[in-house]
């Protein structure tokens, strides 16, 4: 519209200049007509020329009217186009408003969801920290207060965790001191165990000597048991009888077979135990390998920590160099040199610096992106750039301006030059000037309204920009919250990794304890065996004493039997025989068999009944030969002796079997005691001391087993807690991924808004270019108007000079006529030119009358009259055409009056046009000032927007890098969590295996205890029998 107004204003100014030129020509012609009143022919020619020019002007007027009609049609078409464009713009504005409402609703929903999340988090934290929040404040203040309280709670939790860490360190130091004390106690216990081992060795040697003494052959006993041994001297006969009984093949074979079967079963059990021990050793090797893998994993974690520290340092230095914060780099270097740990350095110095630099970069990038988006939106709103494809709007702003905007501006400039050339060729008149001025006023009103609309649009854009800034600040706050959550997750993961390392160390310690327990259990099983052996040995000793007593009794009985048999009146052959043969003979005599003497054959204990039968036959023969008086007494005595002998034989057999079993058990227990690893101090002790030491060790192992079971239960609880924490970390990671997706969506939305801002910025830049172009045109028009005004002032001055000269002529004519025309002239009712024409007519008339009167004068005067009469004759001749000339003069005077009236009207219109031009100049100057201000503000806004766009680009790049790092860290955390879960599962499997092995060992131990109890019960039952 401004360009159309400028073109119309140029056309009007050109018409004004042409009308002014035409008026100047008319003035010149009038002056020539006044000067050449005598030359009527020239006047007629001039009138003819004027009429022709008037006809031409009339034709031009008709042409101008046609052009004005065409221009009106074009204006109507332009108005229709403007109305259609306005409708389109209104539709676009409605669509944009709908989009804005939708986006506002989406942002409100997001804000509500974020507020819900924050409320949930704060509720959780309040439930953890027992904090109470106010409920009467608004949502924003509540959320801010909740977030601040959450931060306070987190800080308190960190302080409490730090205090717990310090307490755990103190407990660890106490545990270390207790470990040192335990090691000292273990050393003392080892010394005691060595002492007990010596005692047990002594006991074992003594037992071995006893067994060798009790189970040796006849030669060995002859060699060993000489006169020095008291047992042979006291129990010689009974030991000889026992030797004969021990050499019984049948009993030896049966006992040997039973012993072999038992040995085979025991060997199988030993092989099974060896297999289980080998499996346990394999498991221990696997546990050692896992321990080494855990150590390598910890070393790799330390390496990754070093890498992360170096990367964080490089990132912080790069950000500090980008933000030109040399102090931060110096602070980082000083913090590194202070000797703090890398984790503390990362948490305390590097991460806050990185967060601050990231926040500044994000703000800069957001500002730059907002400026680019506004510029592109401004360019898109311009109707000239509607033909640009949507794909090209995604190009960067400089390339878009070079490729699309500048060629179109050059084309428009060429078109405007062509239009200006065409408009310069047009000529308009005063009526066109009036219409143009009216249209100019209307266009000025429309331009003012449009300027007001643009100002309102600029205010709306500022509001949008402020809203977008607020949204970006909210997004930055969300990003900071996400970074805080990420740091908290990192800290929790580090804590969990530390706890897992502690648990691994505890597991290693427990594995070592389990190994020790297995060794102790083995030693305890051996101790149980030793206790059983000791009980068996005590039982054997008691049985040996009982046997000694019984042997003494039986020896006394045998001596008494021998005395009785010697007192009997029997033949010498009977008395010369052994007591066993004597008893057999007596038994045969009691049965009634004949008495026969054997051939000196002495059988074994198995053939005793046959020999006793032979002896009885002999006794019967003797008794048949002797008297029958003593038979009744002998039978009674023999029955008693036979009964006692049978009892003694049964007891002897039972004692032999029990001695064989005891000897086998003692051998087995001695083998078991030999296999037990007893300290050298206790090997030389007696069996009772060894058994006491083994009992104490067994109690200690049971206590350690109970403590290990408690620790395993504690480990299971801690592993369950770790699994719950890992699930919570997985949930947090999923929430973080959802928030990252939301941030990406917001980033896309902001990128779209940046593109729109770029389009708006391009539109504004085009409008600024158009305003500058219109301003240049207005300056040109103003310069032309000033030149025309100067020409008008010169023409008015020239016209005033002509008027003064006309008045001088009138004064001369009045002075020559000296009539009463002064009143008419002074009245001013008639113009000066008409008065001059009338006075010239009067002057001519008076001159003619004077010449006619002077004919009656003298001759000289007559000659003068004749000379003067010639023109009078000519005048008389021309009296006939005088009327016509007067008519023509009247018509010319009328035309002159009409031209003067037109000139006055034109002058008034010029004055009005000058006043309007001055007012327009004032308005144009104000518009120029406003345009300059707008340009300055636009330039400042452009600079700000460019800076904001650059900062937004940098922040977006940094945010993308941070998002990539966060995703990498999230993946690493997930991998670490998975590896930790795998490690925990393996540890659970190992714990279950260890529990199973403990259960198996407990079952074995219980089975051994049951066997020992059964054996003890059997022994007790045997003793009772």
TrEMBL record:
Residues 54-124, 158-185, 423-527, 698-746, 882-997 form a coiled coil. Keywords: Coiled coil. Transmembrane segments: none annotated. It comes from the Eukaryota. Signal peptide: none annotated. Gene3D superfamilies: 1.10.287.1490. This is Uncharacterized protein. The lineage of its organism: Eukaryota, Viridiplantae, Streptophyta, Embryophyta, Tracheophyta.
